[in-house]
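Running this now, will post back.
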Amino acid sequence: MVTRRLKLRPPRDADLDTLVTLYADPAVTRFCAAATPHGRDATRNQLRTWMDHWQVRGFGHWAIAEREQPDELIGFGGLMHRSVAGHAGLFLYYRITPQAWGRGLASEMAQYAFGQAFEQRQEASVVAAVLPNNAPTRKTLESLGLRLKGSLSDGPGISTALLYELGADRWATLPRSEPEAVAFAA
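Update: finished.
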């Protein structure tokens, strides 16, 4: 699968080292450290969950590369059915290496994913969870058309996340435009 600037493919076992390296970067995990697997075994389990989702549902998180360098992954992202803090839904997720930030690549991936969700799979909505202090991701979600719906909390001592949502009806009314670059300082 390709977009204007990206190559997207299902993840595979060989992506483990790239994912471990991505998760080891404190700039990548500063807003999501609690939700990030720690250690190689936990990361392998997450990668296996992503691959299993592909096997069962025929879609899921992608390994993401730029089209000009298709063998160099810049991150992972896409949509998966999940339950987070008691809210089940089709969740948007992405983690991109800091060297690729601020160019609208996560937005480009998300727009492609939304097209698949709403136009091909006739999903009713897509949601995303983000910590309140993650202003760049919140801005990205809002620029993609997601609206703040509420909050999620797994319990005492766990940071409350904001829940954003994009419904199929709203998606149908949004203009299809070039992804907006969002400044994201490391």
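The chain has a mean pLDDT of 89. More later if anyone needs it.
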